[in-house]
Amino acid sequence: MVSMAESLVRLSELAASPVVTKVATAFSAAGFELALVGGPVRDAMLGRPVTDLDFTTNASPDEILAVTKPIADAQWDIGRDFGTIGARVTVNGVTETVEITTYRADAYDGVTRKPVVAFGTNLEDDLHRRDFTVNAMAFRVPEKVLVDPYGGVEDLLAEILRTPSAPEVSFGDDPLRMLRAARFAAQLGFAVESATAAAMSDMADSIRIVSPERVQGELSKLLLTDKPRAGIELLVDTGIAEIVIPEIPALRLEIDEHHHHKDVYQHSLTVLEQAIDYEKARHPGEAPDLTLRLAAILHDIGKPATRRLEPGGAVSFYHHDMVGSKLAKKRLTALRYDNDTVKDVSRLIELHLRFFGYTDGAWTDSAVRRYVRDAGHLLERLHILTRADVTTRNRRKADRLGFAYDDLEARIADLREREEMESVRPDLDGNEIQRILGIKPGREVGEAYTWLLELRLDEGPLGAEEAERRLRQWWALRNASS
Predict the structure, then answer these.
(1) Are residues 1 and 125 in the same domain?
(2) Which domain holds residue 450?
């Protein structure tokens, strides 16, 4: 819990930073109002890193360009239609990117989430149109005056998310704000105020007017937070997830009184949390891995469709890995994720059970090579996902699985060192196959290459001479049987 005094000190320190001072001085000299607004104000008061410098002003876009031109290294007006001008400003060797937006007083038509852009004349009206009170605070510069007409400070100190206007009005104007509520609940660790949460439930269906790209953007930002569970649970509890990504609430399988299995929904949330922990431990300081996190939360979405209640109280989910892979591909494509992300997430889900056969008996080197070959560039993510998928409370079982995966990773490292497994290829390439067999490019070359690759995976490197001998032998047998 932060204190008001500490928050104001941090905010004043941000306002006194060289780039903010330079921009504020320029606007003041030109006779315009200027204020830090939204995220940077909130984050500075919370003691969080401030990654963006967002300002609002009574200057028009043309006037913003004129004021910033003498002090900026570069300018861009890609957001000009919405009143936003970007600039890059350097002071004493420190460069910051700033975005400055004319006061807004937008109106929404209630059919789409696209506003009819209208510029406003005062700061208070601009703040009223923002999503949550903690984002509806501004700090006038260079005066260093906090402007908080909607109780943002109180909500910040109480760690509550609430809309500046009635939530029905706010979400009616822009339903995307309901997804933003989930993201901020996770990102800030705040609770959503009861009336705001109730409005999310009542208005969940209105999220349908939001474009898939916008939905995808907020879901991704939610998953990239340090602790996304609270946000996901909020989306599920309010019914919004049922519309935007129904595969997640579908994981809440009804438990039959005679057939018991773990709660798949809670298991998936735990796998996501554990994957994030492993990710941070293995790659400290690196950017969050969206592909891994999508695979973690979606890895069991094939279970509802494959659940079978077996005699004696057992429950099976045969082939849920393959079914889940297809479901993930369909959903992520509908949400307009890029092709690489769709492909990689679905592949990780397809492979996530592969390791568990390792504990049934020692894998041959051939099986280890195939595991590496099939994972390809996803191997490190597969390591993390597989380890995170162990959520049993049985300490002995968890240790056994952990030790087994330690062993597998050690064998992979050993084979890599001996065989350069990252670039596993046959001992002969296509040109050599054509020369040895006296054939032209075509299907037969591909068949020979595939056979040699399987041989390489089974037996390791053979050398060109032995590979040629085995190839000629295979070719002779193939032709004799045809």
Answers:
(1) yes
(2) 430-481
